[in-house]
Amino acid sequence: MVPSSTTTTTTKATKKSSSSSSSSSSSKTTTKFYKFCAAELPDELFQNEIDVKKWIGNSNEDNESDNDNDDTLPNWMTTTSSTNGFNSGILNTVLPLQDKMVDYERCVGITLYMIGNVTPFLIPVLLLIWLCITSQQELLKNVVQYLIQFLVLYQGTLFLIERFWFVPYFLKKYNFDHTNHKNDNPKQSQYLFTERNTTKYCSLSYVWPSTIHRPVLEHTNVIYCLIPHGLAPYGIVGYPYWSKIWNDKLCSWTCAPILLRLPLIGSYMKSIGYIPAKSKNILDALTKKDVNVGIILDGIDGMFHSTSNDEVGAILKRKGIIKIALKAGVPIIPCYGFGHTQLYDIYVDPFGILQYFSKKLNMSLTPFFGRYGWFMGPPKRNVAVTVCLGEPIYPPSLSSSNDNNNNNDIITQDQIDLYHTKLLNGFTTVFETHKSGYYGKTAATENKKLIFVE
Q1: Which contiguous run of DSSP H or E holds residue 17?
Q2: Residue ranges of the alpha helices (H) in 91-220?
Q3: Cβ–Cβ < 8 Å for 453, 104
Q4: 3-class DSSP state for residue 41?
Q5: Cα Rg for the chain, rounded, in angstroms?
Q6: Over the range 394-422, which residues count as b (16 or more CB within 10 Å of their CB) and which as e?
Q7: How far apart are CA 368 and CA 395, in angstroms?
Q8: Where are stretches of biased composition, namely Acidic residues (predicted)?
Q9: Is the peptide bond before 396 cis (omega within 30 degrees of 0)?
Q10: What is the pLDDT tens value at each position of the chain, 454 positions in all?
């Protein structure tokens, strides 16, 4: 998909020419939105020690850009002065992979991760079934035995390929020192070659309004609230971007507590800053650990709405995050992950049985197919993932009480309902502003809408 040119979208090349042609004019072009293509960030800049100015250019204190100042933006960033967002289709540009090894590694690495979420539960269940089958049911016993052997062999083969082929290759390619990835330094640990490869594989980009461009959020903790989950929210796995672009605070994403108890995967998630999706943990992170928090608001429920023609946010009853934000006194930023619902083919039973047990167990039990029809495989590469951030929703002042323990007496249900409505409106505004930039300007796009369900 090749974006068409327009006077409202600027790149580094066009900025120079426009600057010279209007040198006699004192008028300014106000930037409304920024677009950062994470997939195009040079590999040598993907390091924790690199100054953010080398990522996004020089910050503008007035959040305005004239033709001269825009020239400080790097090549992987573009801006627009249009209140309607970027050009038709420009946000869904799938970039070619310059290094085919990135493609191969992600096909193996993502599949390994997906199957690794299942086997710790599936193999014990299959072993129990195998033990319960009587000797008279030899055929069934053999089928279960072969299935266990296949799962072990399948996951083991993927692990060996990833560990002994791809890990050495990419540690050398990116010049990463994996010894720095320790649990006591989650911000450094977020710079993993696997996540770097995912940003390239998914052609990942971020879009945000000038109202949150640096230095607006540099001195405040925030909650990044994102929908839809889809099967897997690949828009968040550019973890370093969330911890660097808008302010320098670590962004700790939340997840189902059960995931943090999984072998290997749980340790990996903890090392990059994940916390349990529980009120106390989120509030402590915001108020005691001085970090930002990211949450996929629709969670597991969001996986079961990916087959809808319209986009669906299962968040009508998700008001707990509002109370946390009000109590912590931090803004919420609504974020929409375009492409999340198009990366996999998900099969949902019509009776809602899988959805019911998935919610009870806090893990997805729905079958899905990715690229090449690969069961539990890598996502498709015919769509890009673009996360669009919205206007911050600031809480009312809670300065009337200095005791956090008393803040529950101040926060009323009416306040929670009011700010929850503001959050819903924020999601809708983000979606409506950027849907043409992502889906293209067609009749179907004009009718495509974001709806909210329980």
Answers
A1: helix 12-21
A2: 100-116, 119-132, 138-161, 167-173, 186-189, 193-201
A3: no
A4: coil
A5: 23
A6: ebeebeeeeeeeebeeebeeeebeebbee
A7: 39
A8: 61-71
A9: no
A10: 333 333 334 444 333 333 333 333 334 568 899 999 999 999 999 999 999 999 999 755 444 444 434 458 899 999 999 999 999 999 999 999 999 999 999 999 999 999 988 888 889 989 999 999 887 788 999 999 999 999 999 999 999 999 999 999 999 999 876 555 555 789 999 999 999 999 999 999 999 999 999 999 999 999 999 999 998 999 999 999 999 999 999 999 999 888 888 888 888 899 999 999 999 999 999 999 999 999 999 987 777 776 567 899 999 999 999 999 999 999 999 999 999 999 999 888 777 787 777 777 666 778 899 999 999 999 999 999 999 999 999 998 744 444 444 444 588 999 999 999 999 999 999 999 999 999 998 867 888 899 999 8
Consecutive H or E run containing 325: helix 320-328
Give the burial class of 310: count Cβ atoms within 10 A of its Cβ; 0-12 exposed, 13-18 middle, 19 or more buried. exposed
Mapped to the 3 state alphabet, what secondary structure does 326-354 carry?
HHHCCCEEEEEEECHHHCCEECCCCCCHH
Q: How far apart are CA 238 and CA 328, in angstroms?
A: 26
Answer positive or negative: Cα dihedral of 206, 212, 216, 220.
Answer: negative
**Sheet strands (E) in 183-310:** 205-209, 223-227, 251-255, 275-276, 292-296
Domains of the chain, by residue range, sit at: 9-14+31-92, 178-442
Nearest to 175 by CA among 312, 40, 39, 47: 47
CATH architecture of 178-442: 3-Layer(aba) Sandwich (3.40)
